[in-house]
């Protein structure tokens, strides 16, 4: 699957991923009203509004981008109905030939970790039949339980030709409380990055590993170091736009081949119509605003990479 992701990045010239992380207040009122008229002000109504919102954004952007990243918590908050919307979103994105990164941040040990891996990336056996659960192409994983939490995921990834993005240095302000702690003269995130690189050697694509890393755009200096620590690791970079990251901060996440990183923007794209820069589109044309935000993001990153050459 890493080979497909790279092929699509080359085809679109857009090393970006759209985070489908919808809050109900991102959804224009007219979509909410229509969903509530059909299902009431219920969890089912909320899930329907989220689904219709996602579908419109995917329809407006799928030809520009290689991948999407739905954040499962935004769907889980609506219970079973929300998870149905999550699955519908994953399936629809696959219909549009998009690579789907399930932002699930799972991490446990033994059979529990294996069950998470099977549910999101693999197939579950039911009698004589096997079924895919959520069927994402990649999943985000928390490594802080150690190898016990990661190896079951790698096993399933090998079986299904899928991949992971393992949390190494996250974009949130308090990430340094633990991730920056010095251990034997090096910050913890470097030790984790080194281990991610080792795990990656077990599952290689043509030029990059199926085992990627998550490193926040808000920490460019750490990104420089981790790029060297993980030369064959694809880096998923959250924190663009709404969290402060810009194209000029991101060039060090890429290798000399112009690959090696994929930059995520969530509310900066899906809620673009709420921003002053795109307010002229209005709520009725929210998806068009999202498309323009994608185009602007691609131009920003491309300009930064060109200037850095």
Structure notes:
By secondary structure, the chain is an alpha/beta fold. The chain contains twelve helices and twelve strands. The chain has helices at 2-12, 29-39, 43-61, 73-76, 79-95, 110-121, 147-160, 176-179, 188-200, 220-229, 267-270, 286-308; strands spanning 16-18, 67-68, 99-106, 123-126, 129-132, 138-141, 163-169, 182-183, 186-187, 211-215, 235-237, 261-265. The strands form three sheets. An eight-stranded parallel β-barrel has the order 1-2-3-6-7-10-11-12, surrounded by seven helices. The model has no long low-confidence stretch (mean pLDDT 94).
Q: Helicity, in percent? A: 40-55%
> What low-confidence regions span 5 or more consecutive residues with pLDDT below 50?
none
Q: Would you identify the CATH architecture? A: Alpha-Beta Barrel
E-strand count? 12
Question: What is the CA–CA distance across the termini?
Answer: 28 Å
